[in-house]
Every structure is written in C-alpha cells, then in structure tokens.
Amino acid sequence: MAKLLAIDGLNIVRRVYEASPEPDSDLKASIALRHAFSSFRNLLETHAPTHVLAAFDYGGQTWRHALYPRYREHRAPMPSVLREALPEFQERLKTAGVPVAMLPEVEADDVVATCVMRWLLENRGEAIVATTDKDLHVLIAHGALVWDHFKNEWHDDAWVRNKFGVAPELLHDLLALMGDATDGVPGVSKIGMKTAARLLNAYGSLDAVMAGAGILKTPLGERLRAERDILYLSRQLVELKTDVRLGVSWNMLAYDSH
C-alpha cells in the first residue's frame, strides 16, 4: 500500500535553528541546515514513504492577511541569515529526491492540508504529516497521523483529546474560541483552552456554542455575543485551505529510497 509523507519543512528548519543558543550568523544557519537535512533523512528512513512532499512558506502576504491585516503582526520574522540560506537547502532536498512546494499567497500548512486531503479522499493509503504545528492536527480527523520528529512520537485521535480536550475535528473550533497568540488569531477574550473545550464538548460545535451558550445571560454569554464577528473571523483564519492548486502529480511526488 502507498504511503505519503508530508513534511512541514519550515517547522523542522526553524525548530532546529532556534535550538542553537548562539547568535544569528551564517555559521549558525549552515550548521542548523545541516542538522535539518539529517532530520529530513531520518524522516525518510523512519517512515519509508512511497510519496513525499516538503512544504515551505513562500513568504509575504497570504490570503489570511487579506482577511485580517494584523495576522501574525507580532511574529518575529525569520532571521535573514536563515532566509538567505534556504534556497540552497531546498535545492539539496530536491537533489536528494524530495520534492519541495512553496506557493504564493498560501502557507505551508495549506499546501500540506491540500496534498494530504486529496491523498486520503482518493484512498491511496497512509498519510503521515511531520510537524509540531497544532493546526495540522485537524487532519487526524480525516485519517492522517502526525509524527513529532523531535519527540519521536505519534499523534493520533487519543493524543489530541488528551492534549487539547476535544476531538481532532473540533480543533479549529477550539483554536477560534481561545485564539492563537503566535499567529495573532484574536479568539474571544478571557476564553482559554479549558473553557473552550468545555463549551465544545457540551454543545458539539462552534455554531451550537453560539446558539446555546451565546444566548445565556452570563458574562461568558455576553462576551460570546459581543465578540461574535471576531470569533467567526478567527474561525476563518485557523481553517486550512484544501483546494490549493499544487501543480504536482502523484508521479512527481513518488519517492525512490534506493
């Protein structure tokens, strides 16, 4: 049976880079990318995929910025030494037989989600997502598995429920309610993960929360009503695009381990 490995490329590169304590420099970038390349090789050896795709952010404005100009406004930009070293790193990946995808106006998450959903809908086999990004864990609801390369552990339905308090299919509703500071997704004020999970488990979905808790004469009900527009905007921002025109065929993603 075929097996797709979709790698959240920048997630791995940045985690490796930020794990080094020394200040930004060309040397730090080249050492980090050498380690990152080993990480990619380990992923391929560990999972032995028949098909592989490494997705990277193209950079610049995305469809999320068009919806909400303050999206990611507080996020530290990628160190320039790392950004300048990336094209050569991506060429190395391609030479090693790993196709690289980066498309304007979408994020790597959208590329991974599109590829994985298409694969699963066509019943092609297993789909593994290599990432530590919480947004991509929603793909578990559709049959994918997430692999945390840094902890060497699988994330499945039970892992998501244990970590976030909701089923994978409710993860985006949870992130919309609680917001996501790293991406600048506002969420509803004073709602944290536990309250968001409690609401979703009680009512079943974001719309049901708004229909039920959102009409209560409590401070929480009042906040939900007052911040309804922000909540639904947040829900759009955390949604993964699954209709990106990738411009690749499965044959182009076929991986030969020899």
Automatic annotation (TrEMBL):
Keywords: DNA-binding, Exonuclease, Hydrolase, Nuclease
Domain annotation 5'-3' exonuclease: ranges: 2-256
Protein name, entry field: 5'-3' exonuclease H3TH domain-containing protein
InterPro entries: 5-3_exonucl_a-hlix_arch_N, 5-3_exonuclease, 5-3_exonuclease_C_sf, DNA_polI_H3TH, FEN, HhH2, PIN-like_dom_sf
Any GO molecular function: exonuclease activity
Pfam families from the UniProt entry: 5_3_exonuc, 5_3_exonuc_N
SUPFAM superfamilies in the record: 5' to 3' exonuclease, C-terminal subdomain (SSF47807), PIN domain-like (SSF88723)
Keyword Transport tagged: no
SMART domains: 53EXOc, HhH2
